[in-house]
Amino acid sequence: MKQDDKKIEAVIDKLMSADRLDKPSFDFTDKVMSKVEALSHSEITVYKPLIPKYVWWLIVSGFAALITYVLFKQPTSSTISLSERYDLPDVSLSLFEGLSFNFSSILMYAMVLFAIMVNIQIPLLKQYYNNRLSY
């Protein structure tokens, strides 16, 4: 094994001694820097939205026109309400009317303590991670 390594090393030494060190041309640095400067002056990519502003204005104005048409269209009879005119179901918005919440005092104390501890821990953790990232 060592014989093979010595033979390989001898061949490499022979090849390295026969080869000369290549030197770049005199103006190599100037050529490279001119290409770098040419790349640095390339066009900046300008942000162009997928949907242009005029299309958004058309959508908004069309929606507003539709709402205006529906609201201000003269009904055939003035006594018909909007929900009756378009056969819409009556919607009740009293979602919390039948609900009542009775919290125990232990739960209230626990929630207050939890809020206080969160408000203390957030700045401490923020400071810890900021100090950790500054190293």
Report on the architecture of this protein.
The chain crosses the membrane at residues 54-72, 106-125. Keywords: Membrane, Transmembrane, Transmembrane helix. The protein has 135 residues and is mainly alpha-helical. The chain has a domain at 2-40. The chain is built from 5 helices and no strands. The chain has helices spanning 2-18, 28-40, 53-72, 82-85, 105-133. The longest helix has 29 residues, at 105-133. The protein is elongated and about 110 Å long. The chain starts with a helix and ends with a helix.
What proportion of the residues is helical, as a percent range?
A: 55-70%
Number of strands: 0
Shape estimate: elongated
Order of helices and strands: HHHHH
Sketch the major β-sheet. Answer: none
Helix-and-strand structural type: mainly alpha
Gyration radius, in Å: 39 Å
Q: Which percent range describes the beta-strand content?
A: under 5%
Integer average pLDDT: 81
Distinct helical segment count: 5
C-alpha termini separation: 49 Å
Spans of at least 5 consecutive residues with low confidence: none
Short characterization:
Keywords: Membrane, Transmembrane, Transmembrane helix. The chain contains five helices and no strands. It has helices at residues 2-18, 28-40, 53-72, 82-85, 105-133.
Topology overview:
Layout: H1 2-18, H2 28-40, H3 53-72, H4 82-85, H5 105-133
Keywords:
elongated; membrane; transmembrane helix; 135 residues; 61% helix; mainly alpha; transmembrane
